């Protein structure tokens, strides 16, 4: 049997890539370890090495092909005794394409399958975004592009805005968020910094005090722990301490929360940490529209804004309103889906579990209303309360730890303001109260799941 | 191979503890005027000697000598003396006010007056200082109203900071005085950021960061040095080495380095040590560093060698950890005496004029104090309005804070 050569993954979160170049041609002999092709993603490029020896029988994906899904067969390798006729016996490439991503996520961990779900555009719904005029045309955009576009548009609009962080310039961002910015704005506005989060955070705070509007990128918010003194004790408090004389209009942004296979020190969600602090605004976008509209708002905001992104969401594609200057208000939630039986509140990556769960719940006859918070501080509790008064039931969903979480705060405020409307206890679906383990099966268990969301909804609707 | 010996921990100790006789004979002090003045564009590696000596202008006879002398005329020197006398008088009044319960806390400058007073005169309006809590001379020499300083210390109804900050944690943006941080060191890297922003904006202003000898251990110090060095930020980085970080002697933070100034060498930053009790020397070195920064030559590290003659704060009793005789044995003397003697030596001052000036200054400070106390003190009189408590958390007040303010009755 010919051996299939599959599209490899550069990282656990990679979903697709470009087959940039074939180094070997059909008919070439290949030894184990030989470089046979080059692939690239928006994050990096990589050489593909042969694992087995044989003859490259057939190339299934031409060089230059973009968006090749991970684990798609890209070539067939003939064994010692095989000739090209063996290829006909092999399954067609299309038939051998990977199973739907949903199933892969459920697959045993030993397969190098991405844990991230395939890019999913939110299901169109009857809920219109109050911030987008009806009839606005939509374009498909990844969260990554939306963030880049937001920064580029604001940097064009305001010469005081600049981006600073590790790998943001020459490398175009550790997660390729700042693609093209160095070329357009130059090295004085897209600044690669030495590796000290504490240092460049303080530097940004100083620059903000001088009247510039820095965007400080953290490769991940996990690395910003050492900078938290500058964020909280200086950025958040100086306007107050100075009697209103000087504040810090600054955006701290970067990947937050769990990605995949990055374990205890690189998987934490900081929403509740920063949301605790007066003087900060905290934003956690889910979709590309959230990302673009809220980042533009954050850059224009005169206060320090903590902007919590998610690595797994970066590659996901959503529809985004095709308008000239798309800005969303900070502190305003969005009802992503209308429903009558239960309110599900989530934000950021938590929304991915929710949007899958509501489909299954609908099939089971349960109508869920979904509130995407978008901002954590200020918290749009009014939208949550209005929904709970309608449904009488509430489930919150987030990846962070349960103790003193954003869910805790929502639960508290809802019982305070809508106690008489509640028909069931408020339930929360959160990450487990353990440091994130590395092993894929343990990691999956540590995070919330679609099933947990469904179970929680069934519990509060007494339909379990 | 010899058998391994048990290791033992080295714990640095100051040369003198209470009851000991102070001995500063290890402190090598060059004669006034002996240290060269490099060209401002001299390569950092060619002026490493500057970090191991001490720039001094005033000699024992009260004369200004050497290549760093000659920048200030008699009028400027009299102004400098007046600033230092004012700061000392201000300190005295506020220490008394603290003992009377009019404020909870105060930090004085005794012995360190020249550092901030002289430095301020080398910079210009519009330049930005990121000071610690012991550079109030920047405000006094910069013409900031003393009454407002006292209003802040008393946290009264006229407190420009609306009752929000610890006493002496002043903030005066229009006077180039950044909000003092109670977290040590944070301002040092912010000064570099401010300076880089000025450069990015093609402005002409420069920044000055300030840090104490003890706080150089903070990571902020090292991050500031990296950024200042890499981006040639137009900033002056000042270490005020007053020998004591509360009870911790300066050797704990300095470690194996011979001087704090030598820390700059690893970063390729020109580093100069200056006699911090010599008004003329501080002013001359600050002017040199400011010229470098304004000329695009980048940062300068200055170690101001001085002595904290008073307690760290009103909460501190230094007799518990250092000899009471240490200040009188301190070889760099006392800054006000030294400038006064110089002015008398050059025939521009007299004991009579000094007594007269002191009386005027005392009256002026008292008058300011009276005005400030009419606005209230910690224990009596008008207080900051709770109505203002919810302002400035954000640039605009969010609804939940408006509600809280209403619930508080305002």
Name given to the CATH architecture of the largest domain in chain A: 3-Layer(aba) Sandwich
The residue fraction in helices of chain A comes out at: 25-40%
**Rg of chain A, Cα atoms, Å:** 24 Å
* Subunit organisation of the chains: heterodimer
Strand content of chain A: 15-25%
Q: Which CATH first-tier class of the largest domain in chain A would you pick? A: Alpha Beta
Would you mind describing this structure in some detail?
The complex is a heterodimer of chains A (464) and B (410). By secondary structure, chain A is of the alpha/beta class. Chain A has helices spanning 85-89, 93-96, 101-106, 143-157, 181-185, 197-209, 228-236, 238-241, 271-275, 288-300, 311-314, 350-363, 381-391, 406-418, 440-446, 450-460, and strands at residues 3-6, 16-22, 29-30, 35-40, 45-49, 54-59, 65-69, 73-78, 138-142, 161-165, 190-192, 213-220, 251-255, 281-283, 305-309, 317-321, 334-337, 342-346, 368-372, 375-377, 394-397, 427-429. In chain A, strands 11-10-12-13-15-14-20 form a 7-stranded mixed sheet, with helices on both faces. A 5-stranded mixed sheet of chain A has the order 17-19-18-21-22, with helices on both faces. Chain A has a 4-stranded antiparallel sheet with strand order 1-8-6-3. In chain A, α4 (143-157) runs parallel beside α10 (288-300) and α12 (350-363) crosses α16. The N and C termini of chain A lie far apart (49 Å). With 410 residues, chain B is α/β, with parallel strands linked by helices. Chain B has helices at 74-99, 113-122, 137-141, 146-154, 186-200, 219-230, 251-254, 279-294, 326-329, 335-345, 351-374, 399-407, and strands at residues 128-130, 207-212, 235-241, 244-245, 248-249, 271-275, 300-305. At the A-B interface, α6, α7 and α8 of A face α5 and α6 of B.
């Amino acid at each position: 049997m010919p051996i299939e050569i599959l599209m490899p993954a550069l990282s656990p979160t990679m979903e697709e890539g470009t087959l940039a170049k074939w180094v070997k041609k059909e008919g070439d002999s290949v030894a184990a370890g030989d470089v046979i092709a080059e692939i690239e993603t928006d994050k990096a490029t990589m050489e593909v090495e042969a694992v087995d020896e044989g003859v490259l029988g057939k190339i299934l994906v031409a060089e230059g092909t973009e968006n090749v899904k991970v684990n798609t067969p890209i070539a067939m390798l003939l064994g010692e005794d095989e000739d090209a006729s063996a290829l006909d016996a092999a399954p067609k490439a299309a038939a051998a394409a990977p199973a739907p991503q949903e199933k892969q996520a459920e697959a045993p961990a030993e397969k190098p399958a991405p844990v991230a779900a395939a890019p999913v555009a939110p299901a169109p719904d009857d809920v219109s975004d109050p911030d987008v005029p009806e009839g606005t045309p939509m374009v498909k955009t990844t969260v990554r592009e939306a963030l880049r576009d937001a920064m580029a548009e604001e940097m064009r609009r305001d010469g005081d805005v600049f981006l600073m962080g590790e790998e943001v310039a020459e490398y175009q961002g550790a997660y390729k968020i700042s693609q093209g910015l160095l070329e357009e704005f130059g090295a004085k506005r897209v600044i690669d910094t030495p590796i000290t989060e504490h240092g460049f955070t303080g530097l940004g705070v100083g620059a903000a005090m001088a009247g510039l509007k820095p965007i400080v990128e953290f490769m991940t918010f996990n690395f910003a722990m050492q900078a938290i003194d500058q964020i909280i004790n200086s950025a958040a408090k100086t306007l107050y301490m100075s009697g209103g004389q000087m504040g810090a209009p600054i955006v701290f942004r970067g990947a937050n929360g769990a990605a995949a296979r990055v374990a205890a020190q690189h998987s934490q969600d900081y929403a509740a940490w920063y949301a605790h602090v007066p003087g900060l605004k905290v934003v956690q976008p889910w979709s590309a529209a959230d990302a673009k509209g809220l980042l533009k708002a954050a850059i224009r905001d005169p206060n320090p804004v903590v902007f919590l992104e998610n690595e797994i969401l970066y590659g996901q594609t959503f529809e985004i309103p095709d308008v000239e200057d798309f800005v969303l208000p900070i502190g305003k939630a969005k009802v992503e889906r209308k429903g009558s039986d239960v309110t599900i509140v989530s934000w950021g990556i938590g929304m991915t579990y929710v949007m899958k769960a509501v489909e299954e719940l609908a099939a089971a006859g349960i109508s869920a209303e979904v509130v995407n918070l978008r901002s954590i501080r200020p918290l749009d509790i009014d939208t949550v309360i209005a929904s709970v008064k309608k449904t009488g039931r509430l489930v919150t969903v987030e990846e962070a730890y349960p103790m003193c979480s954003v869910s805790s705060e929502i639960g508290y405020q809802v019982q305070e303001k809508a106690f008489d409307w509640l028909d069931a206890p408020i339930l929360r679906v959160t990450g487990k109260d353990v440091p994130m383990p590395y092993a894929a099966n343990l990691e999956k268990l540590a995070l919330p799941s679609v099933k947990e969301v469904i179970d929680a909804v069934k519990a509060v609707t007494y339909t379990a | 191979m010899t058998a391994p010996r048990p290791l033992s921990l080295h714990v640095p100790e100051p040369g003198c503890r209470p009851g000991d006789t102070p001995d500063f004979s290890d402190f090598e002090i060059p004669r006034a005027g002996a240290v060269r003045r490099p060209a401002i564009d001299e390569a950092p590696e060619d002026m490493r000697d500057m970090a191991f000596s001490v720039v001094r202008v005033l000699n024992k006879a009260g004369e200004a000598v050497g290549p760093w002398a000659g920048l200030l005329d008699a009028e400027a020197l009299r102004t400098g003396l007046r600033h230092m006398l004012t700061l000392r008088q201000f300190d005295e009044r506020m220490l008394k006010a603290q003992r009377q319960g009019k404020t909870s806390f105060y930090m004085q400058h005794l012995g360190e007056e020249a550092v901030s007073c002289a430095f301020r005169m080398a910079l210009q309006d519009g330049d930005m200082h990121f000071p610690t809590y012991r550079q109030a001379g920047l405000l006094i020499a910069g013409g900031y109203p003393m009454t407002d300083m006292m209003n802040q210390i008393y946290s009264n109804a006229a407190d420009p900071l609306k009752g929000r900050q610890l006493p002496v944690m002043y903030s005066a943006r229009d006077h180039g005085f950044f909000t003092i941080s109670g977290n040590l060191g944070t301002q040092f890297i912010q000064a570099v950021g401010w300076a880089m922003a000025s450069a990015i904006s093609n402005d002409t202003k420069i920044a000055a960061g300030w840090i104490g000898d003890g706080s150089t251990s903070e990571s902020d110090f090292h991050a500031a040095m990296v950024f200042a060095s890499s981006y040639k930020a137009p900033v002056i980085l000042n270490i005020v080495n007053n020998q004591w970080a509360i009870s911790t002697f300066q050797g704990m933070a300095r470690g194996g380095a011979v001087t704090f100034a030598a820390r700059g060498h690893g970063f390729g930053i020109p580093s100069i040590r200056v006699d911090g009790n010599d008004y003329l020397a501080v002013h001359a070195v600050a002017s040199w560093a400011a010229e470098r920064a304004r000329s695009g030559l980048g940062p300068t590290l200055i170690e101001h060698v001085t002595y904290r003659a008073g307690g760290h704060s009103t909460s501190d009793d230094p007799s518990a950890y250092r000899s009471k005789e240490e200040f009188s044995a301190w070889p760099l003397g006392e800054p006000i005496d030294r400038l006064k003697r110089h002015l008398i030596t050059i025939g521009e001052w007299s004991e009579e004029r000094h007594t007269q000036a002191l009386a005027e200054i005392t009256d002026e400070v008292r008058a300011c104090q009276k005005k400030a106390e009419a606005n209230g003190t910690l224990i009596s009189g008008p207080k900051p309005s709770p109505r203002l408590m919810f302002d400035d958390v954000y640039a605009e007040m969010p609804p939940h804070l408006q509600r809280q303010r209403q619930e508080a009755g305002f």
